[in-house]
Amino acid sequence: MDHQTYASSSGRDGMDRAKVAALADEPLDWRFKALPPSAWGLTVREFLAEKPTLADFGTPLLTLDASALDHNLRTMAAWCAEAGVGLAPHGKTTMAPALWQAQIDAGSHGITLANLPQLRVARAFGVDRVLLANTLLDPAGLAWLARELDGDPGFAFTSWVDSAESVRLMDEALRAAGAGRQVEVLVELGGPGGRTGVRDLDTALEVARAVRAAPTLRLAGVGGYEGALAHDATETGLGTVRAYLRSLAELHRRMGDLYDGEEVVVSAGGSAYFDTVVEELSPSDPATRLVLRSGAYLVHDDGFYRGISPLARGAGTPFRSAMHGWARVVSRPEPQLSLLDAGKRDLPYDEGMPEPQRSSAGPGDLSGARVTALNDQHAFLRDAGDLAPVGAVLRLGLSHPCTAFDKWTLIPVLDDADGPDPRVVDLVRTFF
Question: Where is this region: Disordered (predicted)?
């Protein structure tokens, strides 16, 4: 059975650029939140040619900042190049093919995804190197994957496994589908209290041996996610991460005799501890490639990642938050309480409440103001004083891009989110 390594060259340019470019020809209408009626009936390209500004859009609204996106893209690409590691950014953060293309153009050699629906979006846009940071067991999905692999020699795909039973089920489904190419898999190592992944090295080696015995699979390395085991950068949190990564390195060492002599992958690294991943896992063997999967770095935030990012902790030039929420005061029923027209359906809240940053009511200090709660369609803003009268529009800093993008199918990109009336220079389409 034939196979193609995840790291090998496909002879293509990462993804189908024509399909990404065709998004500019998509007609605009009422389906897209906050889009002004003046855009209805126009294509994205035609609407942008009219040079719209932020004031043309309604609230609630999520926007991106072009300069921050560019800064973050270049900063991470340079950091990975200097560290000598590969990057397959997690596409589930944005599910935006145009942003995936920008990441590939900046040097990423693939895109990470989490499940079958996301994989199908990637294939619809011709992404030719995918790391699935999960175990794919759905028989219909595996049959579809087999057809994709057999029909496209340039498609390089790698998945995870964490049990002999998952190996058996994958092998059975691929055999039933008549798969002609092997599916590459990484043995996933987990940790106590974590998410998926084998919990001990001996069992992990049994899984690796099961992969070697399955004719439809190829043992391509090891993988895991340290971010499931810690949630801060305290000494305790970093110690837990280091201990886990050292176990992952030991598993890779023990699996050495099971590899087939071709290049193998060691993969870890979300957006919180990628510096520690490089410190602990950088290979000395030229046949091993370390691949990070950081996804939140591109958009970054004004909350969780602002505090925990390695580059905010001294590992390099810090990222900048590229996303903001915009909400209008629709009620002020009490002197120190204003209700905004943005809620859980519009803004992320799982890693912290939105942060008031500035108001259209005028310059002033909002450092004492805070959003204390979100309902489905409202935010409770307290202690903003004269900066939150009825009708004022507030810019909000947000935490956690992964749960911001899924609420929006079309996101305006501003030339300068700090400007008085920023121009909208792009519209990013998402596919959740």
Answer: 344-368
Whole-prediction pTM value? 0.95
Q: Which amino acid is at 131?
A: L
Task: Map out the domains of the chain as residue ranges.
Answer: 17-65+320-429, 134-292
Domain 134-292: which topology? TIM Barrel (3.20.20)
Q: Is 30 exposed, middle or buried (0-12, 13-18, 19+ CB in 10 A)?
A: exposed
Assigned CATH topology for domain 17-65+320-429: Lyase, Ornithine Decarboxylase; Chain A, domain 1 (2.40.37)
Query: Which residues, at least 6 apart from 10, have a Cβ–Cβ distance to it below 8 Å?
Result: 4, 128, 129, 154, 155, 156
Other CB atoms within 10 Å distance of the CB of residue 328: 19
Distances (CA, A) of 223 to 91, 162, 244, 297, 342: 17, 10, 11, 20, 39
**Exposure on the CB side of residue 48, measured as CA atoms within 13 A:** 18
Residue identified by tokens 């990222």 is: 319
Q: Report CA-CA distances (Å) from 188 to 113, 134, 204, 221, 245.
A: 15, 9, 8, 9, 12
Residues 157-209: tens digit of each pLDDT:
999 999 999 999 999 999 999 999 999 999 999 999 899 999 999 999 999 99
